[in-house]
Amino acid sequence: MSDIAVVGMACRFPHAKDLPSLWKLVSTGHVAFEDIGDDRWTHSAFFEPNDARAQDKTYVRKGAFIDGVDEFAALHFGLAPRRVQVMDPQQRLAIEVTRQALQDAGYETRPFDKQRTGVFLGASVNEYKDLLTARHRALQLIEGEFGDKLSAAEAEAVRAGFADVAPSRAFSIAGGLLNMIACSVSQTFDLNGPSISIDAACSSALVAIHEAAVNLRAKQCNVALAGGVYLNLTPDNHIGFSRIGAISPSGVCRPFDSRADGFVMGEGVGIVVLKRLEDAKKDGDRIYAVLRGTGCNNDGRGEGPMTPRPEGQRDAMRRAHQDVDFPIDTIGYVETHGTATTVGDVVEVGALKQFFSEKAGHALSQPYCYLGSIKANIGHTMSAAGVAGFMKVVLSLHHGVIPPQPGVQEVNPKLDLTHSPFRIAHKPTHWERPTSSPRRGAVSSFGFGGTNAHALLEEWVDAPAVALAERAELFVLSAATPALLAAHALELAQLMEAQKLSAAQVAATLAQRQSFDTRLAFVATGAAAAAATLRKCAA
């Protein structure tokens, strides 16, 4: 079975606008929860803190959101602004972050096989379509009830207030279909491989990564873009999850903690660029990590659509392991689904304990494997949750660090971790490499309705690089405006200083990016000199 290389990644999550800031967020244990404002909806109209089961109300006051979801450079991507008005912003985000992922992989201008590039994106809810439908009905109601009573100026003012609905109905169907989230990416970047939006609820993104791996191994694709997206544009999910008590009344998501009382709603998008490992090595790609195995299944008949079954979860793990042969005790970290719900964490950790013992052939009682959940940092990002956890594990392998798990003061005694292989990291911890093997990690994601996915990741250990003397490199940057170029230069300087990047690799990656009207070029020897020049130019 072919191993799969992760050669590019990009994201936008709460308090994490890009890959470096996502790593900073998880590696420092930062929490992105904040009071729900009125920029998405008038939250006070739906807020009832004293009645957890109030009809059409929610007791939730906290969430985790990303900025600028209404911003999109339509013409830059060759899209008509009138179409973009009624395009689900999840489509726009997927397009923007795909471009960033291709940039990260060095493929924005470098040729790659577009004929056999597939797109597999998790997407399960389109709240924007509901908003436009409501606005369309409101416009019809106003015109029907008051049309003959309004002056020409008043009627024009009403229509102007509904400009995102009235003049662009021709694009409304394509703008509101979930399948178009993947297809819009394929159309925008002229990609001709499979283009599939996958709705498996909360496991959508990890199922999408699984499907991408299946297609790469079957040689249906040579490159695959995979991930997921979710935007929280209405209070509906807060209300629905309040009715069943799954969402945290305290406004804090605490997986594994004795005080855990549910999850917090988050949102975001993550895209990874995948290739067969042998192709990535041949093409000279930078490799973040290697995807060794994936598994996907369904729980089958259970007590209800939200009740997890440990048997189904263990079977998904078995499927991921069926084509790989390495000892279970080389897995040093598991990124769990980790919703912090009363039932979910106990079932999931119980399934992990049983599976690890099954694979080892005996009961495991010495802790060597860390557990974590990114939902404690950015909330439950629904159909993007699986790729958020996936990227966290890839970055942890890449940096050799186990991130701290926020919110755990006292481990939930129901998890019974005392005599198990699992433990919780309370601070950033060096990830010890097992004897004679690479570091390995796993990711679990479970969906409403019982669709489970599990993935096995391994650090990429290349041949030792030959030390070369530093040489002068040409650095080229560009942006649409001077202000954007200055911001880009400053961000790159900070990144080079924080992560000690190779000057040659940075220069080579920048050379593969598209050029815009405002440009900067300079020569520098070494990363420190380049960062200093970037700071000077930014100022």
> Could you name the ranges where pLDDT drops below 50 across 5 or more consecutive residues?
none
Task: Quote the beta fraction.
Answer: 15-25%
Q: Mean of residue pLDDT?
A: 90
Percent helix range: 25-40%
- What's the arrangement of strands in the largest beta sheet? 5-4-6-7-1-8-15-14-9-10-12
What's the total number of strands?
Answer: 17
The number of helical elements comes to 17
Task: Please describe the structure with a list of short key phrases separated by commas or semicolons.
539 residues; alpha/beta; 11-stranded mixed sheet; two-stranded antiparallel ribbon; 18% strand
Structure commentary:
By secondary structure, this protein is of the alpha/beta class. It has 17 helices and 17 strands. Strand 14 and strand 15 form a beta hairpin. The longest helix has 20 residues.
Give the helix/strand layout:
Elements (H helix, E strand, L loop, with lengths): L3 E9 L6 H10 L5 E2 L26 E2 L17 H5 L3 H17 L11 E6 L4 H20 L5 H10 L10 H5 L2 H10 L6 E4 L5 H14 L5 E8 L5 H9 L23 E9 H6 L6 E10 L11 H12 L9 E5 L8 H17 L8 E4 L2 H4 L6 H15 L1 E2 L19 E3 L4 E2 L9 E7 L4 E9 L12 E8 L2 H18 L3 H9 L6 E8 L1 H12 L1
Parallel strand pairs: 4-5, 4-6, 9-10, 9-14, 10-12
Antiparallel strand pairs: 1-7, 1-8, 2-3, 6-7, 8-15, 11-13, 14-15, 16-17
Helix pairs in contact: 3-7, 8-14, 11-12, 15-17
Offer a concise description of the structure.
The protein is α/β, with parallel strands linked by helices. It is built from 17 helices and 17 strands.
